[in-house]
Amino acid sequence: RMRTLAWLGIASLCLGAAWAVPDKEERRKAEKLKADLALYEHVDLDNYDLTLDNYGEILDLSNYEDLYDYSDLAPKIEVGTLAPRPKDPAALPNLGTTAETPKLQPVTTAGPVHPAPIPTQGECRPLALPSCLLCLCIGTSVYCDDADLEHIPPLPPETTYLYARFNRISAIRASDFTGLKKLKRIDLTSNFISWADVDAFRLLPSLQELILPENRLTALPELPRSIIRLDARLNRIPSTGLQPEAFRDLKQLQFLHLSDNQLDHIPAPLPKSLRSLHLQNNNIQTMHEDTFCDSQDHSQIRRALEDIRLDGNPINLSLFPNAYFCLPRLPTGRFF
């Protein structure tokens, strides 16, 4: 019986302690609520206007830290262990000394240093040095524009394109282009050229473009069969200045521009490869019916020859109605 009473006493004590904990927690919350209400007792809720000017008067924050307890949010500092100090002090690194700066060794040379050679410009070889001093050599192109030249300078043997525009060159000699087997284009626009040797261009096997406008030529030399474009506008070439059938054997000729000269007839026969024929502003007065088309072959069609200019000539194109049947387009000129 005594043991039973003892167990009952212990149970009652445990229940009392359990009931006491909630009561204590409730009392703490009630006290905190009273403190919060006391903080705002002086605030007039009927006339409440919080601004930056009266913020300090309405809310007293002087004891802000006392009102709220943030002890539970304080970070916990864990203390670890430090590395043991070595028994031998000599094992510690000496932080008072720095690594010695290596000394620079003087540069020694076995002999004098020679400057690097200056590369020559373009592909100009020693034999062509004069032309590359007077002109600009870039690759296989030689530019001699506006250089006040009176004759064509010696050219590198690899020259492919020559530009000597706006100079004072007055003549073209046969020796000017000797040995230039790769020369494809010659542009001598706007010089004072009045004559050229007969063989000045004939022996150039690769020549495709010969540009000679704005000069004083009165005759054209013989041309190589490789020529594709001939531009001799704005010269003084009469029909007698062209060799008989000068263009018949030029099977690759596509552009023949002889405008603004003194021609009095169309230089026939014309090669079938021709695409553009400019003869405007000459003195052409008549033509043959076979100038462009074969009058014996009415099935002939020259599809390539699409650009013929005869404007600025006194010829009346309407007088030759059978001269254009093979052309894809009528020539440009006067038809009345």
Order of helices and strands: HHHHEEEEEEEEEEE
Low-confidence stretches: 45-52, 61-84, 95-128
Query: What is the beta-strand fraction?
Result: 5-15%
Radius of gyration: 54 Å
Number of strands: 11
Which word captures the global form? elongated
Neighbour order of strands in the largest sheet: 1-2-3-5-7-8-9-10-11
Distance between the ends: 153 Å
Question: What does the average pLDDT come to?
Answer: 78
Determine the number of helices (DSSP H or I, runs of at least 4 residues): 4
Helix % is 10-25%
Supply the helix-strand structural class.
alpha/beta
Query: Can you summarize the main beta sheet?
Result: 9 strands, mixed
InterPro entries: Leu-rich_rpt, Leu-rich_rpt_typical-subtyp, LRR_dom_sf, LRRNT, Mimecan/Epiphycan/Opticin
Protein name: OPT protein
Signal peptide: 1-20
Subcellular location: Secreted, Extracellular space, Extracellular matrix
